[in-house]
Amino acid sequence: MSNYKTVFFTLGILQMILGISMIFPIITQIIFKEFDSSFVSSAMITITFGVLFFLSNLENDKKINLKHAFLLTSLSWISVAVFGSLPFLFSDLNLSITDSIFESMSGITTTGSTIITDLNSTPKAILFWRAILQWLGGIGIIVMAITLMPTMNVGGMQLLKVSSSDSSEKILPKTKEIAFRLIIIYISLTFLCALFYKIFGMKFFDSLTHSMTTIATGGFSNYNDSIGHFNNFKIEMTSIIFIILGSIPFIAYIKYLSGKKNIFMTDNQIKSFFKIIFFSILILFLYLTIINKNFSEIGIRSISFNVISILTGTGYVTQNFDSWGNFPLIYFLILMFIGGCAGSTTCGIKIFRVQILYLFIKNQLKKIIYPRGVFIIKYDGNEVNDKFMSSIISFIYLYIIIFFVIAALLSLSGLDFTTSISGAATSISNVGPGLGELIGPNGNFSQLPNFSKWVLSFGMILGRLELFAILVLLLPSFWQK
Q: What angle do CA 152, 158, 160 make, to 5 degrees?
């Protein structure tokens, strides 16, 4: 176990940070006069375990190899989900261990699915803790996707390498400096979002918590009706803008600050992201006005908000889109799979993988027509080699297989077809609400069997960590020397 001292040392630091963050809900309890011992007890337990991990592994070489990187990535998210569930377990909500871990996993993976039936009357400290979990999960996935996953060669994430072989093109010299800038940008966007929410009518507490879950594209809200509770056009527009800002690759912000001022106009992934949004809104607009003739009851405002929310995996809702007809539901299911940009807080297969798969299929068709032709696949001006291409195809193939496996397991627990399919999609794509009466926009996950909740929790962390980071731990060869 001495080889893993650095992993457990780092886990100790993460546990201490998580335990210290519980002071904010404690302050919230004092302010709103809702004080109980749930967060104090949770903080003491979490910090104690963190200190033990930290001190018992103090003597380590401070180096992490590839095996350690996979182990640290998986264990850090699992441990945060487990210890993050303690406040839910110890609260007056009477949640079981299954429900507590489900809520915590949904928070840290920025999924946004909830088992709390009445958010309107939930203690403020619990609501704040849910927002904190999503906020930490959002910045965690950004830093990991840009600094760690490219090295791990997870599902083609080497696209996000911040430096090329040419040293003159390096953005920043050190990973620590990159992570520091990412955190500063993330915090700045969060406070800017909170400011606009407050200006446009939210109370201070609501503006703070919603800004944290907006930038994280997590979707946890303080109300049963989500953002629709406010019924405020300016608040919805603010939400749309900052969801989009959280869905753009954060490496683009660093490039912009480093002098590449046209990055947002030239980046292939960002351009495709906006195209998908535009055409999705247009398609649903035409369907609801011409084919379904139901536009007067819905409006472009509602269409735009829900398209962006579902595509990015945020999961905020302003209207029950279950009543829009069958086609919008199928279309939303497709958007769940596509997801947002790599290197952002969003989820799903990611736009760059869909783009590269399209180029690969196009290239294969050309080879059929011109058998002797030589065709090179390029993305954003860079050649896509066979290793990179195989990781993309493997990821998408595995993504689809796992989706059907999760859906089958959910159906085994007695759930209907729509709930099983949408539940599988919303977990692996980290979206939040599913489809149907049970887990749809106006429902929640509290009525699901415990088996289904555990399956969905596993699906959430699989989707959030890009599948391979978790699944590689299940291989016997991973543990061999």
A: 120
Distance CA 88, CA 128 (A): 12
Query: 5-37 in b/e burial notation, b at 16+ Cβ within 10 A?
Result: bbbbbbbbebbbebbebbebbbebbeeeeeeee
Contact criterion met (CB below 8 Å) for 270 and 252: yes
Report how far apart, in Å, the C-alpha atoms of 9 and of each of 16, 20, 42, 69 are: 11, 17, 21, 13
Q: Tokens 């990611």 correspond to what residue?
A: 350
pTM equals 0.89
| pLDDT 10s digits, 350-390 | 998 898 899 889 888 988 888 888 888 888 777 887 888 88
Task: Quote the pLDDT of residue 168.
Answer: 31
* Residue 187: C-alpha distances to residues 135, 138, 159 (Å): 10, 11, 25
Query: With left for phi above 0 and alpha for psi between -120 and 50, is residue 130 left, alpha or beta?
Result: alpha
In the block, which residue shows the tokens 């993976």? Answer: 109
Tokens 């059929």 belong to 368
pLDDT digits (tens, 9 = 90+) for 134-169: 999 988 888 877 777 766 666 666 656 544 333 333
Q: Where are the beta strands (DSSP E) in 243-354?
A: none
Q: Is 379 helix (H, G, I), strand (E, B) or coil?
A: strand
Q: Answer with the residue of higher pLDDT: 99 or 62.
A: 99
Tokens of 67: 């095996």
pLDDT digits (tens, 9 = 90+) for 268-278: 899 999 999 99
Phi, psi of 394 (to 5 degrees): -60, -40
Q: What is the pLDDT of residue 18?
A: 92
459 vs 372, more confident = 459
DSSP 77-108: HHHHHHHHTHHHHHSTT---HHHHHHHHHHHH
Q: Among 243, 250, 252, 331, which Cα is nearest to 292's?
A: 331
**Residues in the chain, how many?**
481
DSSP code, position 227: G
The pLDDT value recorded for residue 1 is 47
Residue 162: Cβ within 10 Å count: 17
- List the alpha helices (DSSP H) in 91-156: 97-108, 124-147, 149-152
CA distances from 105 to 302, 316, 463 (A): 29, 18, 12
Q: Which one-letter amino acid corresponds to residue 172?
A: L
